């Protein structure tokens, strides 16, 4: 056994990144051997020390912790490891993970006899710092000190792997632990793996793990079942979730409000309203009472379907049952009315928050501002925007984006540009949507050249330029009938390191068709397919309309046939154009044939 221990220690190699703790690769061949025999080691007894009286309760911040550690490190003899562990735990609770790692390394340099608890704290600190690789290095110290990693150690490492999205490695480590019995895993460890799998959408693996647990001594509890039900519902596997829900009772696991809420979300998202009512009735019969999350889930789903009156009814039932609504409830209902354009009702809900002692947050204002902008009620939107600082709220980039879009829609370009400058002055960074609204707003108001100049300036500043920005500019020049500039931008994109997409090609094809350049449009369509980009419905509608407007009815019929065969349909503009040209059917029967063929397809 000692010989094995010596062989295992040789596996550990130095690593400057992990501060000379040894690099421990979780899935190298040597490491797997290293882990598989780890449970043979027994813990060494720690030497007893007299405990020094230290005021660990006086730590209120990082400065206090560092100061106390310095005092501890100067003591002769050094305080016992238990007190160092208490200090480390306090630093981790302060979320100062880098400081905890620093103290741990310094303790090792001082010669403090670290124990299992110390090393578990260090591993946790590394994992919370998204340095799970260094966490595995600390695992190597366990064996150097003759300690055996426990369930907490491996659970922490599993959490670290999932936190860094190292799903394959996490699954590999978990499988290794279970198959080789490296430690006794409890329901918390299984829950960690289940949570990680569910968060990344590994539904099948999560269900398989649940079935494995059901056959083992460590049975799944209500929390495990709820995670799987929730995961199934999120990925639209509601029938499977309902089946699992029924199985729970058969296995003696009683669903709680969280389980019901997970299932409620799945049913609401699938518009299975009859089953939603049945589930609510079942909750009442089981004396499990709907909470805020239950009501918010139903209200949100109804609002998304435009059923705002029904959502409002649910809101009143919520109040009657003395379930206190939160700002989330009000925001959800208010957003539903805004989406329907019912700004008076939305404002009424906004104003009613005060009667429930609820203070509107940034999202509340943003929802209402966006609603006003969509209805072109820009002055009301500006009034709310200016009210935010008075209420102690700082508008975020989403709020600025909504107002920016609204100002451009109302043709107040000067005000929009001032708002864009203000956004940057207050310390906010424009995001993808900011630039889209800015470029689109300028182009829509006939300032495509200014938009292009702005985009060039952003490029020179080193901003992350997206192909979408150039697609917007190209569309702007298309509307201005400046096809040469559209073509020049299109040809220049590869030099900028940008890959053209379907929208890029479609925009230029549209420009060619609008200018009667049908051969160029056909050539570009062929080039598009050679570049492994498939035309979509918009592409086909553009080229069909172009040929119809130019009197190329046979070509239009050919493209229409191709479009339909690929699963796309003529849009309202194409249909309208065909109907307008129907009067010419006596001279050109092709259009009538096209309409009859479309009609027969619709009836089949």
Please specify the SSE layout and strand pairing:
Elements: H1 2-9, H2 29-36, H3 62-74, H4 81-93, H5 97-110, H6 116-128, H7 132-144, H8 151-163, H9 167-180, H10 187-199, H11 203-214, H12 222-234, H13 238-250, H14 257-269, H15 273-285, H16 292-304, H17 308-320, H18 327-339, H19 343-352, H20 362-374, H21 378-390, H22 397-409, H23 413-425, H24 432-444, H25 448-460, H26 467-479, H27 483-492, H28 502-514, H29 518-530, H30 537-549, H31 553-565, H32 572-580, H33 590-603
Helix pairs in contact: 3-4, 3-5, 4-5, 4-6, 5-6, 6-7, 6-8, 7-8, 8-9, 8-10, 10-11, 10-12, 11-12, 12-13, 12-14, 13-14, 14-15, 14-16, 16-17, 16-18, 17-18, 18-19, 18-20, 19-20, 20-21, 20-22, 21-22, 22-23, 22-24, 23-24, 24-25, 24-26, 25-26, 26-27, 26-28, 27-28, 28-29, 28-30, 30-31, 30-32
Q: Which percent range describes the beta-strand content?
A: under 5%
Distance between the termini: 78 Å
Total of helices: 33
Percent of residues in helices comes to 55-70%
| Tally of strands | 0
Low-confidence stretches: 1-17, 19-52
Global structural class: mainly alpha
Radius of gyration: 32 Å
Profile the largest sheet.
none
How is this structure best described in words?
Helix 20 (362-374) packs parallel to helix 22 (397-409). The protein contains 33 helices and no strands. It has helices spanning 2-9, 29-36, 62-74, 81-93, 97-110, 116-128, 132-144, 151-163, 167-180, 187-199, 203-214, 222-234, 238-250, 257-269, 273-285, 292-304, 308-320, 327-339, 343-352, 362-374, 378-390, 397-409, 413-425, 432-444, 448-460, 467-479, 483-492, 502-514, 518-530, 537-549, 553-565, 572-580, 590-603. The model is unreliable at 1-17 and 19-52 (pLDDT under 50). It is an all-alpha fold.
